[in-house]
Amino acid sequence: MSILVVGGGGREHALCWALHRDTPDAGLFAAPGNPGTATLGTNLPIAATDVDALVAAVIQHDIEVTIIGPEAPLAAGLADKLHDAGRAVFGPSQAAARLESSKAYAKEVMRRAGVPTGASETFTDLAAALAYIEAHAEPLVVKASGLAAGKGVVVCAARAEAADVARAMLAGSALGEAGREIVVEEFLEGEELSVLALTDGERIVILPPAQDHKRLSEGDTGPNTGGMGAYCPVTLTTDELLARVRRDVLEPVLREMAAQGAPYEGVLYAGLMLAPDGTPKVLEFNCRFGDPEAQAILPILPKGATKHLIDIARGRWRTKRQVIAPTRAAVTTVLAARGYPEKPEKGAAIRLPSDLGPNVVVFHAGTARDADGTIRAAGGRVLSVTGLGSGVAAAARVSRAACDKIAFEGKTWRRDIAWRELQRAGAP
Q1: Which of 261, 284, 314 is a domain's end point?
Q2: What is the pLDDT of residue 149?
Q3: How many CB atoms lie within 10 A of CB 16?
């Protein structure tokens, strides 16, 4: 079998790692890949958004299954083009990917499907947005409706701050086209949870839920980022909660998408806020594996789990599973470049020891290899360091110890990934 993973970040390295573990004889390709994926297969120097070149490469190399990692190629219609070429692909159509590429559209789908979410309004007119903000209680959340690489959500403590953000998006060019339409939403309090499910549009298998840490600094302070770490499993996720998410969130959305003529196939990621009374409300949907959630979830799935992706892509999925349970615990810590997320510094040489231990997996994200073989920082989030253990506390210790040993100038990271889980367990 030959498999192409589209993308070049930590999520894509994790996908390649899991596919190689499950099908070591498969021919693996990554486009564009990174130095980590190059150790597992063949990198193709094609941008993840170059849809036509990717389709041509799939045909040229006779690739049997394509797994699309990032949201941008999905929003650009890569899955549709591959289907049109008669190729098996894991990932939703362009129409279905609007669940992530348009937060305004996702809110409308949730409204029609009766999915619990925060009260909100959508705006393209600045005056109307400012009037709405002025009339609503603080704090507020302002979201760019379009794709903004994890930087389009701003939690505003005061109405004046929300008004400034709305002006920057609608009247300025803070986020370009992504911010030409905004969603102003009530602030939801509670604890966040990432629930990812595999689906062919009808069947649903829920993966082990994870918790992301979006703020740059410890104690969940500083600006929002694409994600500074994640852990799995999360003890908040009881069987009853997952059954409720399936019934009240996942199934209604799939039915509504099918009714709209945009059946959903691939990974459906529900970013949830769990209210103090346990009610799950949807913050956002993503149409792909999360990053860094994938780096925590994939290593603790039972061997062979990636066959679900391949069977869904080929239209051969006949599973009777409801959930996939984790085999152990994982804590993923992101090592970022100095200046991330605003202006990450690139070029620092990375010292990556080879003796980090058997319970550590390092996934490359923003890295590049020099002609002389030196690995250098080439993006904002540089490495994802996943520690494995019998429980979250043990996995967190392994991840932190490995991060201490990896060196590059300007290394920025959080030592408190999984702090809520450790606090619940009374662990240091």
Answers
A1: 314
A2: 74
A3: 29
Predicted confidence at residue 272, as pLDDT, reads 97
Please write the tens of the pLDDT for every residue from 373-398: 999 999 999 999 999 999 999 999 99
Give me the CATH number covering residue 302: 3.30.470.20
Averaged pLDDT of the chain:
95
Are residues 161 and 135 part of one domain? Answer: yes
Question: What would the pLDDT profile of 355-378 be if each residue is shown by its tens digit?
Answer: 999 999 999 999 999 999 999 999
**Boundary of a domain, candidates 249, 284, 314:** 314
DSSP-derived pairing of the beta strands 360-364 and 381-389: antiparallel
DSSP 356: S
The verdict on residue 107 lying in a domain is no
Is residue 102 one of the residues assigned to a domain? no
Q: Three-state SS for 205?
A: strand
**Strand 329-336 to 229-232 pairing:** antiparallel
In a domain, 152, yes or no: yes
Half-sphere exposure of 374 (CA within 13 A, CB side): 11
Q: Report the domain count for the chain.
A: 4
How far apart, in whole angstroms, are the C-alpha atoms of residue 244 and residue 123?
Answer: 31
| pLDDT band (50, 70, 90) for residue 427 | confident
Strand 182-186 vs strand 229-232: parallel, antiparallel, or unpaired? unpaired
Instruction: Tally Cβ neighbours within 10 Å of residue 263.
Output: 18
- Per-residue pLDDT, averaged over 238-255, amounts to 97
* Helix runs in 246-373, H state only: 251-259, 293-297, 307-314
Domain assignment of residue 212, given as a range: 191-314
